[in-house]
Amino acid sequence: MFADLHLHTNFSDGTYTPEELASHASRHGLSAVALTDHDTVEGCVRMAAACAQTGLEFIPATELTAEMDGNELHLLGYFVDTQNPSLLKEMARFQAVRQNRIREMVARLNGQNVPLQADAVFAIANCRSPGRPHVGRALVQGGFCASMDEAFERFLKKNRPAWVPKFKISAVDAIELIHQAGGLAVMAHPGLNRTDEIIPGLVEAGLDGLECFHTRHSSSQIGHYIRIAKEFDLVITGGSDCHGLSKGKPLIGTVRLPYQHVEKLKEAAAQRSFK
Ligand code: AMP
Ligand code: ZN
Ligand code: FE
Ligand code: FE
């Protein structure tokens, strides 16, 4: 039995609906999935229903963008209560920041003689958590760029003309936010950040797990992070980080987390709820 605990839908920057995602997961023979849309849990209701229909185990979650010692990191919150008032309030704030950031990116594009309109981006995004991939899609659809890669290379990548830094919650506050919503905080794709030195501080702040298996982790990185997880007594998680068709090939099915790690995650969540 295998799981994929890192998946996005069109409630953030993925292209699949929750129903499409559940159907792909079931076709790939997965037993359990988690939905980890950026700064939202809105897709979880439909995803839970779609998973129940297809006989998949479902874990509600989210992915928050955080910061520690000047490093950006992504924190996954598993088993959060999707009705938790503080979580919903904070995520509404992150979503407003995202929407303002889109307007600022569009203004910078206009300054580069690219007459894209913010409404075109919002229409494509059609969600409360828009991000750079939506600007990229709008640039391609508007005929301003030939591909998403070109959009990121020319305009959207860090330090390119339309790049705008994003407000980030401190990692310590993000872990606290996830915990008070009854969830477990897991550091996403540590191999992409290459900032292993922040892990002890995150553990000190209450980090529960490390995403050891990820599409962009090499087998030596997987081994490396499993060793770190064991050293700090962290739960091991993993997922494909599938965004549907947004980055070309759908990644679902390419990372298969052995189900024993889902059992451990559930045990850790149950322990937390007794505290
Ligand atoms: P944001 O959270 O708005 O800063 O956007 C980050 C998203 O952009 C992540 O999902 C990245 O994987 C995605 N992204 C970064 N570079 C590229 C690229 N070259 N092509 C497509 N998507 C990208
Ligand atoms: Zn994303
Ligand atoms: Fe991420
Ligand atoms: Fe992600």
Helix content: 40-55%
Low-confidence stretches: none
Largest sheet: 9 strands, mixed
Identify the overall geometry: globular
Order of helices and strands: EHEHEEHHHHEHEHHEHEEH
The secondary structure category is alpha/beta
Summarize model confidence as the mean pLDDT.
96
Describe the model.
The protein has 275 residues and is of the alpha/beta class. 45% of the residues lie in helices and 17% in strands. Strand 2, helix 2 (44-54) and strand 3 (57-68) form a beta-alpha-beta unit. The site of zinc ion has 4 residues, from loops.
Provide a compact summary of the structure.
The protein is α/β, with parallel strands linked by helices and 275 residues long.
Structure characteristics:
single chain, 275 residues, alpha/beta, nine-stranded mixed sheet, 11 helices, 45% helix, binds adenosine monophosphate, binds zinc ion, binds fe (iii) ion
